[in-house]
Design a protein that fits this description.
The structure is a homotrimer. With about 325 residues, chain A is of the alpha/beta class. Chain A folds into 2 domains: about 10-150 and about 320-335, 3-Layer(aba) Sandwich (Rossmann fold); about 155-315, Rossmann fold. The first copy, chain A, has helices at about 10-25, 50-60, 95-105, 120-125, 125-135, 150-165, 185-200, 215-230, 240, 260-270, 280-285, 305, 315-335, and strands at about 40-45, 65-70, 80, 95, 110, 140, 170-175, 200-205, 230-235, 245-250, 290. In chain A, helix 2 packs across helix 13 (about 315-335).
């Protein structure tokens, strides 16, 4: 079944088609509209969303299909996930039935299911997403899980492809950790890194010591870079990293220490409040563009002047969610590519 | 006006058409699609829902109409129901205006309005549903009220008709009370019993003493059975009841004692925790199928092995909600049958 | 850009077209249906809604477009509004990005954003609505702001035009303050007054001393009346005001004192509980019709007998929300008129 739980396991041929199709959707809003009349898509949001829900509902509708959104715990009961234990708690339905039932109504399921922040193995392996997909009789599209955000990565890849006019290879891309009041999940940094590596960019992951990404992700990125002719390196010096950068992609995430020592992690983050992208970082680049997946905390992650300036792609990234998701749905339902 | 507040008051000719149409929708997803362009349907959920909301929104859309869902108290204020009393409380709008207004926008209203659990007469007579329908200028479809769940009953009737290839008559159907942490309402057991009796099945209501259904429902079931050539009996012995059963339909409900003595009722339920459907009950049947309206508590109402086995119709029942509701809407809007 | 933040700044030619179109939509439900296929509309509700959300979703769908509803704080995070301050609080996204992003997905944005009740200048100037509109790259439709409710005013104008068969001019219109347990915002009374003045009606604002509307609104109303041949006066005597009235439009609002002395204001209101429209007020009129924008508190704002009688337009007003909004969207998207 054509689940899309991450992008890195899609073959290059599909990856290329998806980017190409996203760009066509961006150029022409009517492109492939109403190609899937009578199809239904279920969108299950275990976590809050703005861009994702709005762009998914509109992508589905633009293709002529019907979206239906489910928010567990709001208008419907919560779901139990554990297996083999009598359900005597607050959850009235098991995810096995919930997904089984939805599968009978729809032609694809999208699901947003963030990291627990408390179970590192479960988060790293996207165990809940895997369980959800296993219960589904229809293709599942990951709308941000514990460790991956393929829709964001596809949107970003298409934005970069357009920005560099198809020549993103070897362009200097800095994925910079930033300050944030909370220990955020790693889905976006993971997927961003893998995306940029796959595009063959010259990637630097800039982060304070202790904020390394998971090693399996770094290894996968190195592997993709080696195939694509790109490069992946790390730096704990933001000032040095941004020199000559063509893209500065800001994103905060929690240190892996949070799983065992959340208070120690909070303290670590406190001491790096200067990791905030400013105009001076931007000027140190080479006509650098700012990127962020949003939502973004102004004055914490990045200065207002950067977001309000002209050297930023953040709204394009949001817009391309719509275009990329149309391409993904089309591929899931029709096998283009 | 063609309100559908229960199924038992529909004439046999309509009942037959609805089941027949539901089966056609199940066979061919495009059947009668887009037959009602420009129609609008309001769906009002005073209580949580998964299957009902999703399948109603999709049924309406598949017919070419537009659904709009309202959840009183979430995104809109709560509604007052009492008449003739100055509205000085938390509710900003009276149900009279709320329904009156919605009636002006839509061509039918669906409403979910569970039992109070505290006012037995009101629940038994579906008094709030009647009030809602009386305020409406358009047909009202009951999406589960205090004492009836016609959409579930129609889905189940069509599933049984398909399963027995049109020969459900005299097949042995056990409606079994089960263990549950809460005193649930009686809408589903009531409607299930009336449905099976109308199909002419050989029905046993298995329940511990004290968990009898309301006497007016038992009488109505006997009447339907007498017309259809079926039979209705009761048993307080689950083991004996399931012998030779072709269908075991599990469902928990609260004892009527809950209205006056909720704590005594909870204690009564505690002493019947062994009323949980297991593989051994299933094996005692005659190639028995398990049924449940969902949501279901695994390990409490039924064992995982039954739900995960091959002798169960629970996902078909959920699926047929969609098919049956298309048939109902079509009939409400077009008078087929 | 064709924002519709209020009605009074639309030229007379547009105003006339909108009323005329609303009446056509009321006569023929299929009028101009499916004129805007492929268009998307975002509906952002910072406050509760029944009529507005339902009628907007259906208006958009009837025109062939796709609505998508966002409820900040429910399913999505809350938004920050302050500028130039590091976002360290509970809000994860700034309204600047939220609106900027939505603008990329849709062809118009509707927004409901009630009065703060605490910042009089902000409320009077609709400062938050202005900020929202400034952040938007697409036309913004006001779905009730701190100080205006143009969709209600358009609906009411069309209802009055129909009721008086096009001859509303010089008909006696009483906008009457009423009792209410809370200090409500002024958007509806402001817009109602301006609407009736523009129709050239003979308007009396009846309210207890201390419940005057804001002076800028009274001045604007006088100006509109002077152009339209109408009249605007005030009265603190409800009994006298309703004599000979052809329309009694009930609505409660808070005294401006609430901004500085909320407790004193509550006490003021307490002493005017007899400002409740009764049948005797209606009989004092000249075949008077009751009007109210809803939701309405029965027995507090108006007696049940008036709402349940035949001399009331309140459900027509609600219905015309749908018709008027179709006209507004059509005009925003196509420039009719």
């Amino acid at each position: 079944m054509k689940h899309v739980l991450n992008l890195h396991s899609l073959p290059d041929s599909v990856w290329d088609v998806l980017i190409g199709e996203a760009l066509k959707h961006a150029e022409n809003r009517a492109y492939r509209s109403n190609q899937h009349p009578g199809k239904h898509m279920g969108l299950v949001f275990f976590n809050d969303s703005l861009r994702t829900r709005v762009s998914m509902e509109l992508a589905v509708a633009a293709l002529g299909a019907t979206p239906v959104t489910v928010t567990p715990g709001s208008g419907t009961w919560g779901f139990a996930w554990e297996k083999g234990r009598p359900m005597l708690g607050g959850e009235a339905e098991h995810i096995q039935e919930a997904v089984g039932v939805l599968s009978r109504y729809v032609d694809a399921l999208g699901v947003r299911l963030f990291a627990s922040g408390t179970d590192r193995d479960q988060d790293r392996e996207d165990a809940l997403l895997q369980q959800f997909a296993a219960a589904s009789a229809v293709p599942v599209l990951n709308l941000e899980s514990a460790s991956r955000h393929p829709c964001q990565a596809l949107a970003d890849a298409a934005v970069l492809t357009r920005h560099f006019d198809g020549h993103a290879k070897r362009k200097k891309f800095v994925l910079s950790w930033t300050n944030h009041p909370k220990a955020l999940p790693m889905a976006v940094p993971n997927s961003t890194l893998l995306m940029a590596a796959r595009l063959g960019m010259d990637v630097t992951v800039a982060r304070p010591d202790g904020f390394e990404l998971e090693s399996d992700v770094m290894e996968k990125a190195a592997e993709l870079a080696s195939s694509s002719g790109g490069r992946v390196q790390e730096s704990n010096d933001l000032q040095a990293a941004v020199l000559g950068a063509q893209v500065i992609y800001a994103k905060s995430w929690g240190a892996v220490r949070r799983y065992e020592h959340p208070e120690a992690e909070a303290k670590m983050r406190q001491s790096h409040r200067d990791w905030r992208i400013t105009e001076s970082h931007m000027h140190a680049g080479d006509n650098a563009q700012f990127m962020h997946c949003l939502p973004v905390r102004r004055g914490v992650v990045v200065d207002d002047a950067v977001l309000d300036g002209s050297q930023t792609l953040h709204l394009d990234q949001a817009e391309f969610r719509l275009h990329g998701q149309k391409a993904l749905l089309d591929w899931m339902w029709e096998g283009k590519g």
